Amino acid sequence: MAKCQLLLLFLVFLLLAAHAKSCHPDDLRALQGFAGNLGGGGALLRAAWSGASCCGWEGVGCDGGRGRVTVLRLPGYGLSGPVPGASLGGLAQLEELFLGSNSFTGSLPTSLFSLVGLQKLSFESNQLTGQLSTHLQELKNLTLLDLSVNRFSGRLPDVFHDLTSLIHLSMHSNGFSGSLPPSLSSLLSLRELNLQNNSLSGPIARVNFSGMPLLASIDFAANYLSGSLPISIADCTELKSLSLANNQLVGTIPSWIRELVHLRYLDLSNNSLIGDVPKGLTLLKGLTTADRSQRMAFINMPLYVKRNRRTLQQQPNVITGTNNYVRSGDGNTVSGNDNTVISGNDNTVSGSDNTVRSGNKNVLTGSNHVVSGTNNVVSDNDHVVNGNNNVVSGGNNMVTGNNNVVSGSDHVVYGNNKVVSGG
Fold first, then answer.
1. Which residues lie closer than 8 Å to 51 by C-beta, 6 or more apart?
2. How far apart are CA 224 and CA 333, in angstroms?
3. Residues 242, 260: contact at Cβ < 8 Å?
4. Which of the four CATH numbers 2.115.10.20, 3.40.1180.10, 3.80.10.10, 3.50.30.30 does domain 21-100 have?
5. What sign has the CA pseudo-torsion 280, 286, 292, 298?
6. Other CB atoms within 10 A of residue 423 CB
7. Rounded to whole angstroms, how far apart are CA atoms 98 and 122?
8. How many angstroms separate the first and last alpha carbons of the chain?
9. How far is CA 73 from CA 70, 121, 177, 406, 412, in A?
10. 3-class DSSP state of 347
11. Phi and psi dihedrals of 209, rounded to 5?
C-alpha cells in the first residue's frame, strides 16, 4: 500500500513538473514564428528550441501558473535580420524583452508597441535604423528602455509624459537630432538618463530637471546643446555623475553645483564656459579637481572632476590606492577599490567594486565588477560580465555573450557554446 502511494506521488510530481514547463499554445506559436524569421544565430536557436515545453527553453521565462511567457532574454546570440514584430506581438503577457548585442536591422515594428505589459525593453548594440515611433507612449509600464548603440535618427518623440515609471533611459550613440523633448521633465522615477553621442541641439533648459529628483546620472556629452547650465539640475539632490562635455554650453560654472553633495564625477570639458571654477566645488567631499588650479579661468579647456582621479598620460602605468579613474592607456596595472577603467587593453585590476567599460584581455580579481569586452579573465564573486571568450570563475555572476567558460555556482548565463561547471 505504501509503495502504491509513493508511486502515485511520484506520478503526480512528474505531471506537475511537466505542467510547470508547458506554455500557452499562443506563446508557443509566437516563439516558433520568432525563431523561424531570424537569420544568423537563428538556426542555432531553432535547433535549441525544440518540443512544446517552451517555458524550459533557453532565454524564455514563464509566470509558472498559466504558462504565459513573460520574459525573453537573448542578448549576444548573433541574431540578425528585421525584428520579427508580428511574432513578438503574439507574446501578449511579455514583461521583459532583452535582445541586445545582436545584429537586428530595420526599424522597431509597430506591433512591438502593442505589448503594453512590457516593463523592460533593451535593443542596445544592434543596427536598428529609422525614427523612434510616437507609439512608444503605449508602453506605459516601462521601467527600463535601452536603445543605445544603434543607428536611429530623427527627433526624439515628445511622449515621455506617458512613461512616468521609467527608471533607466539610455539612447546614447545614435543619430537622434533636434531639440530635447520637454516631456523628459515628467520622469519622476528616473535614475539614469544617457543621451550622449547623438546630434541633439537647442537649449539644454528645455528639460526641467526639477521634475526628476531621483536622478543619479545625467550624460548629455557629445551633442550640440546650447545655453547655460540650468539651475533645475540643483534639484537633483541624488546626482552622482554629471557629464555635459563636448556641447555648446555658455556662461560660467554656477555656484549651485556645490549643493550636489553626492556628486562624484563632473565633466564640463569642451564647451564655451568662462570664468573661475567656483570655490564651493572644493567643499564637495566626493570631488577633487584635477590637473588645474581651482581658480584658473578657462575657455574650451578640459575640466574633469573625479574623486581621487588620476589621468593616464603614458603607458604602461602602475596605480595604487582607492577610487582611481583610468581614462585611457594600455598595459596598465591598477590596484585598490572603486576603480573605473573606461578604455584600454591588457589591464590588470584588483580590488572591489571596479568597472571596466571597454577593452580586451583584462585580468580582474576581487568582487562586484562590471566588465565588458572580450578575452577577459574574471575571478571571485558577484560580477556582471558582457562579451565573448571570457573566463569567469566564482559565484553569483551574470554572464552574457558567447564562447564563455564559466565555473563556480549560482550563475545566470546567456549565450551559446558555454562550458559551465559547479552548481
1. none
2. 36
3. yes
4. 3.80.10.10
5. negative
6. 8
7. 5
8. 37
9. 10, 10, 30, 19, 11
10. coil
11. -70, -10
Q: Are 63 and 50 in contact (CB under 8 A)?
A: no
Per-residue three-class SS string for 90-111: CCCCCCEEECCCCEEEECCCHH
- Give the start-to-end residue ranges of the domains of the chain: 21-100, 131-307, 318-421
Give the three cell numbers for residue 29. 506559436
Residues linked to residue 387 through DSSP beta bridges, in sequence order: 373
Helix (H, G, I), strand (E, B) or coil at 163: coil
User: 258-273 burial by CB neighbour count: b if 16+ within 10 A, else e?
Assistant: bbbeebbbbbbbbbeb
Is the C-alpha dihedral spanning 121, 124, 126, 129 positive or negative? positive
Whole-angstrom distance, CA of residue 331 vs CA of residue 137: 46
Given this model, what pLDDT does residue 64 score?
79
Q: Residue 84 and residue 415: Cα distance in Å, rounded?
A: 20
Angle at alpha carbon of residue 382, lines to 381 and 386, rounded to 5° = 110
Cα 372 to Cα 400: distance, rounded to the nearest angstrom: 10
**CA 217 and chain centroid, separation:** 12
The highest-level CATH class for domain 131-307 is alpha beta
CA distance 149 to 127: 8
Dig out the grid coordinates for 258 from the structure.
556645490
Averaged pLDDT, groups of 10, the chain, 423 residues long: 42 38 89 94 92 93 91 96 95 97 96 96 97 97 98 97 97 98 97 98 97 96 97 96 95 89 91 81 60 38 44 44 53 57 56 54 58 61 60 62 62 53 48
Task: Round to whole Å and give the CA distance between 254 and 343.
Answer: 30
